[in-house]
Specification:
This protein is an alpha/beta fold. It contains 16 helices and 16 strands. α1 packs across α2 and α1 packs parallel to α14.
Length: 435
C-alpha cells in the first residue's frame, strides 16, 4: 500500500485528503483481495492524498457540454438566524423537506421573509419543529456542546463500520471475469452523495450496478450524472404491488442491495436486511443512515451538511458564523466505507458463506474525521488543485467531463464501463453476465 502527498489540500481545518486516502486505500485493498481470491495473484495499491481530496468533492468537477450543471443547492437551504445570536441550518434541496420547513416558518414569500420568521424562534425549538413536520434541520453547535448531547454519546459508542452475518447460506465463488467485481450485481436504492458513491465505486471495479429510483421522488438534479457514472438507471414505484414484485425479482438474482432510506422505511415493503436475506440467501445488504442505530436521533433525517452543523465542524470551519467545508467529506468517506464493507462481505461470502449486513452512518463518519485532528491557519491554503494536477484526473466521457477514479491498482485499474445516463433511462432488469 503506497500513499504519497499530504494535507492540507483545501482551506479546511480537517484532514480531508488523509481521510479520503485512507478509505480509498481500504477500498483498493479489498478489491485486491477479491482479485487474489479469483486469480491467486497479488497487486499493488496506491493513493495520492491530493487526488483523494479532490475525490471528496467529485461533483464539483462535473461539466456537461463544457458547462457546469445547475446549482443543486436550493436558494432556501442554508443557515438561518434564530434567537440568542445562534443559527439553524435548514435543508431544502428536496421539495418535500423545503415545504415542511417553510410551513413551520409560516410559508414565507422568499428567503428574506423566511429569515425574518426564523429570528423569532429559539434554535432548539425550531430544530425540533422542522423535524416533527418531516423536514430536516440542525442547530449549529460548538464541539463542546455537541460532546454533551445524548446523541453524540450514542454515536461515539458505535463502530465506524459494522459488518454482521445475518443469515446462513453456502459459500459462493465470485463470478468469472477480468475484474475484481465482474459479474457481481448491485441494486442501488440510494440518494444524494454517500450511498450513490458506494455503488459508483463498485461499478469502478466491474460490478453491474442497477440504480433504482422512483419517478415520483425528488432527486439531486444534474449531480446525478456524476454519482451515476457506470450505472444502469431504472424506475420502480415501490408504492405499488407491481413495483415491489419487480424489485423482489431483481433482488433474487442480485448480490448486493444498497439502500439509504431512513431506518424501517423499506421493512414496511418487505426489504429489511432479514427479509432480503430470506428472499436471497447470500445477499450483502449495505445500509446507510444519518445518525446510526442507537440514540434519540436514530430515526431523524440528516445530511452531510446537517452533521457538520450540529457536531461543531461548521463552527471550526467558519468561527463566528458556521460555515460548511469546501468538500462533502462526510458523504464521500461514508460512500467509500460502504463500498469497502460490501467487498469485505463478498469475500466472506466466498470463503464461509452467509448473508451479510454492512452498516455506516454519516454521524459516526463525521466523528472519525474530527478525530483525525485539524490544522490551524487553514484559510491561507489555496482553494483548488493546480491546473496541472487537475489535468491528470479529469476525463471526458461523451458530453460529460468528470473526475476519473483516483485509486491506483497495478493489475485491475478502476474504470467505468457505462457512461452517465438520466434516471429511468433503462429497463429494471439485469444485463447478461459476462465471462
Amino acid at each position: 500500500m503506497a500513499f504519497t502527498g499530504s494535507d492540507p489540500v483545501f482551506p479546511t481545518p480537517y484532514q480531508v485528503g488523509t481521510a479520503g486516502a485512507a478509505v480509498l486505500g481500504a477500498v483498493g485493498l479489498a478489491a485486491a483481495n477479491l482479485w487474489r481470491l479469483k486469480t491467486h495473484r497479488q497487486q499493488k495499491v496506491a493513493v495520492e492524498v491530493r487526488q483523494a481530496a479532490a475525490a471528496m468533492r467529485s461533483a464539483r468537477y462535473l461539466r456537461i457540454d463544457g458547462k457546469p450543471p445547475k446549482e443543486a443547492w436550493d436558494p432556501l437551504s442554508g443557515y438561518y438566524p434564530v434567537k440568542d445570536g445562534r443559527w439553524v441550518s435548514i435543508h431544502c434541496n428536496f421539495s418535500n423537506h423545503r415545504e415542511a420547513a417553510m410551513k413551520v416558518l409560516g410559508n414565507p414569500a422568499d428567503r428574506a421573509a423566511a429569515e425574518a420568521a426564523s429570528r423569532n424562534w429559539d434554535g432548539l425549538a425550531l430544530e425540533d419543529a422542522i423535524h416533527a413536520a418531516k423536514g430536516c434541520a440542525g442547530l449549529a453547535r460548538h464541539a463542546t456542546e455537541w460532546a454533551q448531547h445524548p446523541h453524540s454519546m450514542a454515536v461515539a459508542a458505535q463502530p465506524l463500520l459494522e459488518i454482521t452475518k445475518i443469515g446462513e447460506s453456502k459459500p459462493e465463488p465470485l463470478p468469472n471475469g477480468s475484474r475484481p467485481l465482474s459479474g457481481v450485481r448491485v441494486l442501488d436504492l440510494t440518494r444524494v452523495l454517500a450511498g450513490p458513491t458506494c455503488a459508483r465505486t463498485l461499478a469502478e471495479h466491474g460490478a453491474d450496478v442497477l440504480k433504482i429510483a422512483g419517478p415520483h421522488l425528488p432527486d439531486s438534479g444534474s449531480s446525478e450524472f456524476d454519482t451515476g457514472i457506470g450505472k444502469l438507471q431504472a424506475f420502480l414505484d415501490l408504492r405499488t404491488p407491481a413495483g415491489i414484485d419487480a424489485l423482489r425479482g431483481l433482488l433474487k438474482d442480485g448480490d448486493v442491495f444498497s439502500q439509504s432510506f431512513r431506518p424501517g422505511t423499506l421493512a414496511a415493503r418487505g426489504f429489511s436486511p432479514e427479509q432480503a436475506a430470506a428472499l436471497r440467501p447470500g445477499i450483502v445488504y449495505v445500509t446507510l443512515s444519518a445518525w446510526g442505530t442507537e440514540g434519540p436521533w436514530r430515526d431523524r433525517r440528516g445530511f452531510d451538511s446537517i452533521v457538520q452543523t450540529v457536531s461543531g465542524m461548521a463552527y471550526a470551519q467558519g468561527s463566528e458564523k458556521p460555515k460548511l467545508m469546501p468538500v462533502s467529506v462526510i458523504d464521500y468517506v461514508s460512500g467509500y466505507l460502504m463500498a469497502f464493507g460490501a467487498m469485505v462481505a463478498l469475500a466472506r461470502r466466498e470463503t464461509e458463506g452467509g448473508s451479510w449486513r454492512v452498516r455506516v452512518s454519516l454521524a459516526r463518519t463525521g466523528k472519525w474525521i474530527v478525530d483525525r485532528g485539524f490544522f490551524e491557519g487553514f484559510a491561507s491554503v489555496p482553494p483548488e488543485l493546480l491546473p496541472e494536477e487537475l489535468k491528470k484526473i479529469i476525463i471526458q466521457t461523451g458530453k460529460y467531463t468528470h473526475l476519473k477514479p483516483v485509486l491506483g491498482l497495478s493489475e485491475t485499474p478502476p474504470f467505468w464501463e457505462r457512461p452517465p445516463a438520466p434516471l429511468g433511462t433503462h429497463k429494471p432488469e439485469w444485463p447478461e453476465r459476462r465471462d
